[in-house]
Amino acid sequence: MNKGSVLILGARSDMARAVAHKFAADGHPIQLAARQTDSLADDVSDLSLRHGVPVTAHEFDALDTDGHAAFLDGLPELPDIAICAVGYMGDQAENERDAAAAALVMRSNFEAPALILAALANRFEARGWGTLVGISSVAGDRGRATNYVYGAAKAGFTAFLSGLRNRLAKKGVHVITVLPGFVATKMTAGMDLPGPLTAAPEEVADAIEKAVRKGRNILYVRPVWWLVMMIIRNIPEWLFKRLSL
Fold it and tell me: pLDDT tens digit string along 10-52?
């Protein structure tokens, strides 16, 4: 049985690499998209040799939103599944001082991912099938002092995915929102992460593959995050302002 091709946007991150291996191991052809595709040469070789599937690499700058259409036109085929792992955490203190730094975080986590998935959504809708996966964040469930610029961008992306899912529900196109929580990656290296709330990239990849296969809508990679964020969302504002979260 032929497996549908999988496009991975932002393919150089630890999570994206784990996702690529998970779907390749299941027999899916893989399209890797990121800036500086020369840096993906080892990934292309490893994936194709280890899993025996076609793997291609494609130059993609998510922030170059005017170039999204040309990027999609240049793919060998329109994928069956597209997974957007584009994102940039930035530094909250810097974001508070520097508008350009804050704008980069907002564009990287909301504008760019939303617009590339919007372009894919239109093509999937015209074709009549496909699955779109957006990796958002629990940080978007409620604004907190420690990361509200990043959280605001992720909140926008989460809302966008919800609306896109609603729009495409009867069009043969499924949209999945992924909320990983803490993930042990190079981006979080050095941070003191709580073990029970922290997933490995491979755990995220396994959860995404299962969500695609089962047609899930919203995926908290570790289910405990649903409870944690429900509690945080329901803290009264007068009390929330007094907390350091």
Answer: 999 999 999 999 999 999 999 999 999 999 999 999 999 999 9
Does some domain include residue 1? no
Query: Does residue 150 have an active-site annotation?
Result: yes
Residue span of the structural domain in which 234 resides: 6-240
Number of domains in the chain: 1
Residue 159, classed as helix, strand or coil, is helix
Residue 245 lies in a domain: no
125 inside domain: yes
| C-alpha–C-alpha distance, residues 158 and 175, integer Å | 11
**Taking each helix axis from N to C terminus, what angle separates 148-168 and 99-106, rounded to the nearest 10 degrees?**
30
Q: What element of type H or E holds 202?
A: helix 201-214
Q: Which two tokens stand for residue 126?
A: 């015209």
Closest C-alpha to 243, from 113, 162, 127, 143:
143
Q: Residue 85: helix, strand or coil by DSSP?
A: coil
Write the Ramachandran bin of 239: left for phi over 0, alpha for psi from -120 to 50, otherwise beta: alpha
pLDDT per residue over 153-172, tens digit each? 999 999 999 999 999 999 99
Please list the residues that pair with 57 across neighbouring strands.
32
CATH of the domain at 28: 3.40.50.720
* Location of structure tokens 């986590």: 109
Dist CA 212 CA 143 (whole Å): 29
pTM of the model: 0.95
